[in-house]
């Protein structure tokens, strides 16, 4: 399924529709270039899950968690060397938890049945969001 978002608010609305179906245990892989809107999409998911805290990129820690209707584990693996580093930090354990993992720049090799979402910038405010 492909949808075009014309604003941050529309991206939040699309994320909200995805969030409504989440039961816990899902892993969402967000792909797309820098500035495509992966973190923005994650903010929309967080809002829809009733998370009050502001979602900010977990650049140096690789993961930040937020409590809501479901716990959100937000990963950004851009600066991770490789999968081993993530395992050493114990981050793979979160994949098996009851919350929802949202991963930017994924480096884990074996994720079972992820929800894959590709975001592509079309112009300044338009984004093509493809849900696989
Ligand atoms: N329709 C849209 N959906 C999402 N972000 C948008 C949209 N239009 C403009 N933007 C802007 O694009 C940028 C996306 O940044 P961010 O979400 O941090 O990207 P990424 O995490 O993919 O690097 C933000 O500055 C946001 O305001
Ligand atoms: Mg980001």
Instruction: Return the domain count.
Output: 1
Strand residues, percent? 25-35%
Mean pLDDT: 96
The portion of residues assigned to helices is 10-25%
Low-confidence stretches: none
CATH class: Alpha Beta
Q: What molecules are bound to this protein?
A: adenosine-5'-diphosphate, magnesium ion
User: What is the CATH topology descriptor?
Assistant: Rossmann fold
Notes on the protein architecture:
- 23% of the residues lie in helices and 27% in strands.
- The mean pLDDT is 96.
- The protein has helices at 8-20, 38-48, 83-88; strands at residues 2-5, 27-31, 63-66, 72-76, 100-104, 115-121, 127-131.
- The chain has one domain (2-131): Rossmann fold (3-Layer(aba) Sandwich).
- The radius of gyration is 14 Å and the shape is globular.
- With 132 residues, the protein is an alpha/beta fold.
- It has a seven-stranded mixed β-sheet.
- 31% of the residues are buried.
- The longest helix is centred in the N-terminal third of the chain and has 13 residues, at 8-20.
């Amino acid at each position: 399924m492909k949808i075009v978002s014309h604003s941050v608010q529309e991206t939040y609305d699309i994320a909200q529709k995805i969030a409504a179906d989440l039961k816990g245990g899902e892993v969402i892989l967000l792909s797309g270039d820098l500035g495509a809107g992966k973190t923005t999409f994650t903010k929309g998911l967080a809002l829809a899950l009733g998370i009050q805290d502001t979602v900010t990129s977990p650049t140096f820690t690789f993961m930040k968690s937020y409590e809501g209707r479901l716990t959100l584990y937000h990963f950004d693996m851009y600066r991770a060397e490789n999968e081993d580093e993530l395992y050493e930090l114990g981050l793979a354990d979160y994949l098996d938890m009851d919350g929802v993992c949202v991963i930017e720049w994924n480096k884990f090799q074996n994720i079972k049945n992820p929800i894959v979402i590709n975001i592509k910038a079309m112009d300044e405010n338009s984004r093509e969001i493809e849900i696989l």
